Amino acid sequence: MTHITDIPRDPSRSALPAHLRTALHLIERGLPVMPLREGKVPFGNCRTCKDSACGDRPHMKAAGPCECPAPCHGWGAATTDPDILTSPAWARAWRQAAGVAYHPGGGALTVVDLDDTDAVAWAREILPATKTVTTTRGEHWIYLGTMTSHNGVRPGVDIKSAWSYARWIGPGTGRMALLPDAVRALAVKEVAAVVSAPATIVVPDRPGDAVCRHRSPAYLERGIAMAEQRIQEALEAIHRTVYRTFLAVLSTHGQCGCLTENHIGRLFTAAQAKGESLRHCEIAWANARAKLGM
Fold first, then answer.
1. Which of 71, 89, 152, 264 is most buried (most C-beta within 10 Å)?
2. Could you give the CA distance from residue 94 to residue 97 in angstroms, rounded to a whole number?
3. pLDDT (average), residues 11-40
């Protein structure tokens, strides 16, 4: 009897799960891929890697020491290595997979995700024509070039490139164009909204008798990086996740006054990349301070 973790290494690929066959085809085109489960979301971290206990930070440019063989860490699991894709550690995920995703940035691509008919109409008026893939509710416009991913750059429009994943739906139609400045400009506007956060955002003061509990600058940096990752990996209840993350950061790092505007800006940027408005970030931060009596 064949065990569930035994994926046949059949050169013809006919014995492989359908989604794995698709994934192997995509890596031949240079696209890093990974399996998706029901709901178009990645498989969760294994017990060893849960909450980044392994020390990996796949959302950063320099990942940590984790070498987990399982499809962990969301988009960070995407690979072009056929030995990894067909390994026993990935077998169960492929058996349960509901789809395949790819990491656009890893393939030097940017996907403009148009989520409704209004967004599609806007793109046809503003953006240069490129390869187009029809989705359930709208279209994916795929350009050649890489940039930072941003959600909600305008109503119904997300940008998926570096540090993100897109669902593979099909090859699409049309000829791929170079990433235009009009798309890059959308992300610039999004970042500018964070930089121009009003003065209502309060950086905690350091009490005169406070003792800094940070063992080194790396301790604070790791705390902020883990908070960014927690927000970025949230799959649902985004408002609640952002508030609880802000609360955790303030409870650990807010009492000694070491948090700076730069740290807070990073947290707001992560939250806005998940679709939170600047106003929601302000409210969550204020509520977290009030909860802690700050």
1. 71
2. 5
3. 88
Find the mean pLDDT for residues 147-172.
89
d(CA 33, CA 93): 13
Write down the pLDDT at residue 64.
43
- pLDDT per position as a tens digit, 59-77: 333 334 567 888 888 888 8
Mode of pairing for the β-strands spanning 166-167 and 131-134: unpaired
**Is the pLDDT reported for residue 1 higher than 50?**
no
The single residue listed with the structure tokens 């940070």 is: 214
What average pLDDT score do residues 242-252 get?
A: 84
pLDDT value for 60: 36
Dist CA 163 CA 161 (whole Å) = 6
152's CB contacts (< 8 A; 6+ apart) are 158, 190, 272, 275
pLDDT (average), residues 191-216: 49
This prediction has a pTM of 0.62
